[in-house]
């Protein structure tokens, strides 16, 4: 299990191979876990792992290692770090890097690379442009040709995770440099100052809110209190924002994106939930006389339409200038840390509004739930049964599957930052390895994996890692024996469904072969009981749920 101590066993104060120095440097900067797979090209990076005190989690595939690093970062607020080999190792982790790029995840990928590729051909793991390949799915990708460059690039990545939009970074180091002796890294730099809001920004937002009678807020994942945690601190996180009481007193209406669920308390009477994808939400948004979008891209996967639907003035709050200048064409653009700006805005009371009624919100939610039930028959009762028994501190990692698509709209969360999904890039197989990374980050907290029968087969080999780590991880496997969402899309497009039915393995026997527990509940109450049992087990449990489950 993960090492919870903070005492570094051996200080890095002498010359040693650069690969070992990097591990010592990462420990000194607060990193405690590495996800990856060793190989002959990156083995020097493994020389210093144990001496530095890092815990290495052995994935079964570099794609799994990347998703584990992603889940770890989302769960902890700390960067997820992965070690991979030259060539295929980097190529295999590029899918998780792309996912992390679209979902703003602090992932640092450190790879080996060949010393020379122009004059020498036919080398092991050689590719034409490894640095360029990494750049296509990351914020930046650079080669460190010496020790000072490696140290500078690593510190740059860790600093940017705290000061800019979180996105994967790739540092590659030539094999000869990893093997060569290097001096110790420089001292840990001072932590950057928080991104503060300006008095003018606060005054602007307060003036806009004060003039409105029917304001509507849309909260994205960037509006949640940011986790800036040390390893010794409680990683349950997700505490209520300090501006929340002032916002609720305002009596404005609100939506959240899927990533923003839990920011507004579950059951708040003027909260429409995470149902922006309902087409009718555009009409609700059009009825507002001020729309404030906070920490959200308002992307296609949030709305499933090109325009938000607003007719009134739109205020955007974000740190990313690209978001502020997008096609939604906000009239007011406030480049600021969302949490800091809201905290200052609601530090003093604002006059409550009376333009929204609890009845109109409740009626809209009832209609939208009925639409979801009609679109995906039989899934809502399972979602409701699951929501009844989910512990408030539970963290959920879901995959690209019909069950999750419905659940993301109807299951609200008790706290922010506790439901993670491959929103933008949309990669099948994300949930299992990401949940493993999340469980490693929160060793004594409940974690749930929700995955479909097809997506599970993308990364099912990582079940071995979960067994190896003895994680009490329930894996709710939705098995309808087909690519149900694609089948429905083909039918809607008047295409005869093709290649949407697959031959599945016996998932229960497969789980047992890996050394995991497995069960197939027949009723919803059986499913609830199975979840509770799995959360206290000494290894992961596959809970196979089919459309035949009864109430």
Structure description:
- It is a single chain.
- With 551 residues, the protein is of the alpha/beta class.
- The protein is 38% helix and 15% strand.
- It has a six-stranded parallel beta sheet with strand order 3-2-4-5-7-6, with helices on both faces. It has a six-stranded parallel beta sheet with strand order 15-14-16-17-19-18, sandwiched between helices. The chain has a five-stranded parallel beta sheet with strand order 10-9-11-12-13.
- The longest helix has 18 residues, at 358-375.
- The radius of gyration is 24 Å and the shape is globular.
- The model is unreliable at 1-5 and 228-238 (pLDDT under 50).
Structural class designation: alpha/beta
Radius of gyration over C-alpha positions, nearest whole angstrom: 24 Å
What is the strand content?
5-15%
Apparent shape? globular
Tell me the span between the first and last alpha carbons. 37 Å
Q: Residue-averaged pLDDT, rounded? A: 93
Separate helix tally: 23
Query: In which order are the strands of the major sheet placed?
Result: 3-2-4-5-7-6
Low-confidence stretches are 1-5, 228-238
What level of helicity do the residues show?
A: 25-40%
Biggest sheet record: 6 strands, parallel
- What is the strand tally? 19
């Amino acid at each position: 299990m993960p090492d919870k101590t903070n005492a570094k066993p051996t200080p890095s104060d002498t010359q040693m191979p650069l690969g070992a120095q990097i591990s010592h440097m990462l420990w000194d900067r607060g990193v405690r876990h590495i996800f990856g797979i060793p190989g002959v090209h990156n083995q020097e990076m493994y020389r210093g792992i144990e001496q530095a005190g890092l815990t290495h989690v052995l994935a079964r595939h570099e794609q799994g290692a990347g998703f584990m690093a992603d889940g770890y970062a989302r769960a902890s607020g700390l960067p997820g770090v992965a070690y991979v080999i030259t060539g295929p190792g980097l190529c295999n982790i590029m899918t998780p890097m792309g996912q992390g790029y679209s979902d703003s995840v602090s992932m640092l990928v450190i790879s080996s690379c060949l010393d020379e590729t122009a004059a020498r051909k036919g080398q092991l793991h050689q590719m034409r442009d490894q640095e360029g390949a990494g750049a296509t799915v990351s914020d930046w990708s650079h080669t460190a040709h010496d020790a000072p460059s490696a140290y500078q690039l690593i510190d740059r990545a860790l600093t940017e995770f705290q000061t800019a939009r979180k996105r994967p970074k790739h540092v590659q180091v030539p094999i000869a440099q990893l093997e060569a002796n290097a001096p110790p890294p420089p001292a840990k730099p001072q932590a950057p100052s928080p991104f503060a809001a300006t008095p003018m920004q606060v005054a602007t937002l307060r003036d806009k809110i004060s003039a409105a009678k029917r304001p509507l807020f849309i909260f994205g994942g960037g509006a949640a209190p940011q986790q800036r945690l040390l390893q010794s601190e409680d990683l349950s996180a997700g505490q209520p924002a300090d501006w929340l009481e002032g916002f609720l007193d305002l009596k404005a209406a609100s939506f959240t994106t899927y990533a923003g669920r839990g920011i507004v308390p579950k059951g708040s009477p003027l909260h429409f939930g995470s149902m922006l994808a309902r087409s009718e939400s555009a009409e609700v948004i059009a009825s507002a006389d001020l729309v404030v979008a906070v920490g959200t891209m308002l992307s296609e996967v949030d709305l499933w339409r090109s325009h938000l639907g607003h007719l009134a003035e739109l205020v955007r709050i974000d740190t990313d200038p690209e978001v502020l200048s997008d096609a939604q064409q906000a009239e007011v653009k406030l480049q600021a840390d969302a949490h800091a700006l809201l905290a200052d805005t609601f530090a003093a009371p604002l006059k409550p509004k009376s333009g929204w009624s609890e009845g109109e919100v409740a009626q809209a939610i009832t209609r939208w739930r009925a639409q979801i039930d009609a679109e995906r028959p039989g899934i809502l009762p399972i979602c409701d049964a699951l929501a009844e028994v989910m512990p408030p501190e539970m963290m959920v990692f879901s995959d690209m599957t019909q069950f999750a698509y419905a659940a993301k709209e109807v299951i609200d969360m008790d706290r922010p930052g506790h439901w993670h999904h491959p929103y933008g890039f949309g990669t099948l197989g994300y949930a299992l390895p990401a949940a493993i990374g999340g469980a490693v980050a929160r060793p004594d907290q409940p974690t749930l994996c929700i995955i479909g029968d097809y997506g599970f087969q993308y990364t099912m080999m990582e079940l071995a890692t979960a067994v190896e780590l003895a994680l009490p991880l329930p894996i709710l496997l939705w098995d309808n024996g087909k690519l149900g969402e694609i089948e429905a899309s083909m039918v809607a497009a008047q295409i005869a469904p093709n290649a949407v039915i697959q031959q599945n393995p016996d998932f229960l026997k497969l789980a047992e072969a890996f050394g995991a527990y497995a069960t197939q509940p027949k009723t919803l109450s059986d499913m609830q009981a199975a979840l509770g049992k799995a959360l206290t087990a000494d290894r992961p449990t596959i809970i196979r749920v089919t459309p035949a489950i009864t109430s």
